[in-house]
């Protein structure tokens, strides 16, 4: 497969190609992306939609001097192919990243993974270039959903063009984000998008009259149009900022896109170029997808399409069922899920309880203040959010939800190592962050029935935010354990104790040969009775393969030291580091935190 999905071209070849050759190249790249993603999994629809745009960018810019920043970065597969990277290694151990990665190629000018950062990064680069007299272009390719996040608003609001070198912002507008959204920015873009009819007519008018002998008619008509526009038409959203605006343009038409990129380069000052692209272009199933099935996929058969089989033993599935039951049981319950409704298996909740479900898009900071406001007025807010995205909400949780004693129930999806998406998506920091916040509770269920008990039976009168960490992967469901702060199992020796969390620790029951075992379910605050019991052991092994050492492990150790513990403490947890993309099992094995490694180490195998 390897040779099949390395492009035989690179961006220097594109500079020499004519329009027909470029269209043929787009078809070739589309086929290679389909082969790679169907084999390895990955982000499909977004990459199929930007192939022509990517080719146009490489036709118009010099990658050695100009900077191309793809927001989020999950639409860079064509870019990677055309800069000689092998998509056969996508999302593989020691392979290539699914996002832009400055450690992978000098053509990647940023680390991608989280949305809405390209504009601020690009402005920083353009400001530095201005100070150095560098006249190269900085190009930010940002999607409409990313544009609706708070960070680009802050960037645009601070922009003063005299302080920056040439900056071009390309809005890749596909009418969707991850799934079909209904936010205000989308409505605004829809209104602008509808003017593409006008753009096509304007182009024909220019072609007819903008020539020798007829140019005065054209220039006079343009001047009159501008005056009438100011008087009669409402202000374009982008007119508020210090940018020239071009568009909307058909971004899947290479000829037009190149033409308008070149026009953008000639305009003195910053430019916003608005392009309309078709998400999932060229593959029937992804073109018809309206709910985000083909945004991110696992391996699948190209002929049959992607079959997203939800594993009923997965933590995500169990959590989604529990949330549904809580919404059904409690008429005051309100669900908030930012941009990940489909992936968190919450579509049924949104369909059944539509008046009490909100998808505010990529707006994590807003989510927790919104939830806090709901709680302050007596509603019972439930937030479902990925661990890696919740990091962006630290201040709102600390200063607002916790300080105002708002009972917000947060289901933290993808806690722990999550696999192929790599360093930007690992959910290993949430516990360490929450450790620093007063007035919170954090739970980590051991098995499926405990997920139900914690979520469905949540008491919304506790006067503090509560968090439930859900690991990626399957949970056992034999209903052996009850909902206690910790579960104790008596071992064969009474001077050693193993304290741990999560599904991997359940695989380590053979450790009972060497000592007692404590399975933790409530991680914050730690149970005082547990801490008092642990003082009786000569050796404590704290095992947490789901968090960095600064999380649960250091909290247990610190609390024991405060109680004058004199024994030995061994910590088996993740180092504070960036963990690359590979299967979750491979990551745990690599850092020797999988169950087999722990058993081998402590059972003297």
Automatic annotation (TrEMBL):
Pathway(s) it belongs to: Metabolic intermediate biosynthesis; 1-deoxy-D-xylulose 5-phosphate biosynthesis; 1-deoxy-D-xylulose 5-phosphate from D-glyceraldehyde 3-phosphate and pyruvate: step 1/1
- The organism's superkingdom is given as Bacteria
Q: Where is the Transketolase-like pyrimidine-binding domain?
A: 313-477
Q: Which keywords does UniProt give here?
A: Isoprene biosynthesis, Magnesium, Metal-binding, Thiamine biosynthesis, Thiamine pyrophosphate, Transferase
GO MF annotations in UniProt: 1-deoxy-D-xylulose-5-phosphate synthase activity; metal ion binding
Top EC class, one word = transferase
InterPro entries in alphabetical order? Dxylulose-5-P_synthase, THDP-binding, Transketo_C/PFOR_II, Transketolase-like_Pyr-bd
One GO location term (cellular component): cytosol
Family annotation (NCBIfam families): PRK05444.2-2
Subunit comment:
Homodimer.
Q: What is this protein called?
A: 1-deoxy-D-xylulose-5-phosphate synthase
Lineage at the top is: Bacteria, Bacillati, Bacillota, Bacilli, Bacillales
């Amino acid at each position: 497969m390897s040779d099949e999905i390395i492009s035989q071209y690179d961006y220097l070849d594109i500079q020499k190609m004519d329009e027909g050759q470029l269209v043929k190249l787009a078809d070739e790249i589309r086929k290679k992306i389909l082969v790679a993603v169907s084999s390895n999994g990955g982000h499909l629809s977004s990459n199929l939609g930007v192939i022509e745009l990517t080719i146009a960018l490489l036709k118009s810019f010099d990658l050695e001097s100009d900077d191309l920043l793809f927001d989020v970065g999950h639409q860079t597969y064509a870019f990677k192919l055309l800069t000689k990277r092998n998509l056969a290694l996508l999302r593989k151990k020691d392979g290539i990243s699914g996002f832009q990665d400055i450690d992978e190629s000098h053509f990647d000018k940023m680390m991608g993974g989280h949305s809405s950062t390209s504009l601020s990064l690009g402005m920083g680069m353009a400001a530095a270039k201005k100070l150095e007299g560098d006249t190269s272009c900085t190009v930010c390719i940002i999607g409409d959903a990313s544009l609706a996040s708070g960070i680009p608003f802050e960037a645009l609001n601070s922009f003063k063009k005299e302080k920056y070198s040439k900056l071009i912002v390309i809005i890749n507008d596909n009418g969707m984000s991850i799934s079909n959204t209904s936010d205000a920015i989308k409505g605004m873009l829809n209104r602008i998008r509808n003017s593409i009819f006008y753009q096509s007519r304007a182009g024909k008018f220019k072609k007819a009259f903008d020539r020798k002998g007829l140019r005065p008619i054209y220039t006079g008509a343009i001047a009159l149009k501008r005056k009438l526009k100011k008087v009669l038409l409402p202000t374009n959203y982008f007119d508020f900022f210090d940018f020239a605006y071009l568009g909307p343009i058909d971004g899947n038409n290479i000829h037009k896109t190149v033409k308008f990129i070149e026009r953008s380069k000639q305009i003195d000052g910053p430019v916003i170029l608005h392009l309309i692209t078709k998400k999932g272009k060229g593959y029937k199933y992804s073109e018809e997808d309206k709910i985000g099935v083909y945004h991110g996929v696992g391996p699948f058969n190209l002929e049959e399409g992607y079959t997203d089989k939800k594993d009923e033993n997965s933590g995500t599935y169990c959590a989604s069922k529990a949330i549904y039951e809580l919404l059904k049981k409690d008429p005051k319950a309100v669900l908030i899920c930012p941009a990940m409704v489909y992936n968190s298996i919450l579509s049924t909740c949104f369909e059944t309880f539509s008046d009490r479900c909100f998808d505010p898009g990529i707006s994590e900071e807003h989510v927790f203040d919104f939830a806090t406001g709901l709680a302050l007025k007596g509603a019972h807010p439930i937030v479902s959010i990925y661990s890696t995205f919740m990091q962006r909400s630290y201040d709102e949780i600390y200063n607002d939800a916790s300080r105002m004693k708002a009972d917000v129930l947060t289901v933290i999806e993808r806690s722990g190592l999550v696999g192929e998406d790599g360093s930007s998506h690992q959910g290993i920091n949430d516990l360490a962050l929450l450790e620093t916040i007063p007035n919170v509770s954090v739970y980590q269920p051991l098995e499926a029935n405990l997920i139900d008990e914690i979520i469905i039976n949540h008491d919304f009168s506790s006067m503090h935010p509560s968090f439930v960490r859900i690991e990626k992967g399957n949970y056992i469901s034999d209903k052996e354990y009850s909902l206690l702060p910790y579960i104790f199992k008596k071992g064969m020796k009474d001077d050693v104790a193993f304290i741990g969390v999560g599904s991997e620790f359940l695989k380590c029951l053979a450790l009972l040969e060497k000592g007692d075992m404590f399975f933790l379910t409530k991680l914050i605050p730690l149970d005082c009775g547990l801490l008092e019991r642990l003082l009786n052991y000569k050796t404590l092994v704290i095992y947490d393969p789901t968090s960095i050492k600064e999380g649960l492990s250091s909290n247990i150790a610190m609390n024991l030291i405060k109680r004058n513990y004199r024994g030995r403490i061994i910590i088996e947890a993740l180092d504070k580091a960036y963990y690359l993309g590979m299967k979750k099992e491979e990551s745990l094995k690599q850092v020797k935190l999988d169950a087999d490694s722990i058993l081998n180490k402590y059972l003297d195998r």
